[in-house]
Amino acid sequence: MNLPGLLAGLEILAVILFLMTVPLVLELIMLTAASLFPASAFNQNAAQRAANGTGDPGPVRNLSFIVPAHNEGLLVERCVRSLTAQLDDGSGHRSSLLVIAHNCEDDTAARATAAGADVVRLDDPTQRGKACALRFGIAQAINAGADAVIIIDADSIVAPGFVTRMKAALNSGADAVQCAYRVLPSGSGSPSLTGIAFQGFNLVRPQGRDRLGLSAGIFGNGFGLRREVLERVPYSADSVVEDLEYHIQLVAAGTRVRFVPDATVFGEMPGSGAGSQTQRARWEGGRLLMLKAYPRRLLREIQRGHYRLIEPLLDILSLPLAMGVLFLLLALCLPCTWLRWYAAASLLVVCAHFVVAVKAGPHFWRGMGVLLMVPKYILWKIVLLPKILLNSRRNASWVRTHRDRPADFTGSVHPDALE
Prior knowledge:
By secondary structure, this protein is α/β, with parallel strands linked by helices. Helices cover 51% and strands 12% of the residues. It contains 16 helices and eight strands.
């Protein structure tokens, strides 16, 4: 190839790298900065309800917690006990707790019942995946008279005060809510790269959206919806990232999800390599599926004046952070001056986001030390790419995350970490 042809090829590659990474960079700049703003005093929920033609739905009296569980005998008792301890919040209206034992082949149903939950079995091999269990559970709760539902994963623990704070958020006028979703800390309390990534994605970014008056997002665990919302936007998502898909539907319908940072759910992350690979491939493959399915639809709605969909579009177009860093490093190596300046500035933005994410958790300096694990993590993500691509198909099979150890409510984490 002659020199002019080589330079033209490098320019094309530079433009491709820029277009691939700029949505993530814009998201990080906007949301990381906004997360540092003071909490907004205004509340847009009343205005949104007026725009949707709905009035004030009134206080939530009958709140139902739904726990979808597929072969979660090792962990479901711990989850149920953390909830049942808070169901009677002193308001005179005790919340209900419904575990959906979904195609279980173990003792999930028996253990959940023993821990104090109401259990309904869903045994249908044609109904696979969490979305099926959620649709079934939501229908059960609404038919029983629930004013609102809150979804909790069976491998999770809710922190003290969770029920009271989520109910208060719904009663303050929110149509939909998402709590802070953190990684369950280890017994030592040492931060991990996964935990810090969670803090960035599930704490910093939704707080930034909420401070900007945008919809915070839902993350599949610790989100709540009023009955009126479910009647207006039925839970019809069916992909392996049903939470992301349903959130797009909510925003398109004019519903804003409010962030409730003082209510926390802790999720169990798989300890084994196999479990981590399955979970990560499902998450990122599902997001790639949304990248294939939704951008054109969102662009059409934005062109019609639905500007609230701009941020969800940027979110869908954003690469996973590790992949974004990898492409920015590649951009930094190309002999293209403008691209190098862009890549260097963007990597500084990523570093600032990382610092803010570390600050969102305990042990700041130990968290900063985890930065040394980033190169290894990026390599792991590269190896995982084939599985991610397999999970990006619409008909991709839902695969349960492998549990390689039982987790005890009192022994797996120091109680102070749950405060």
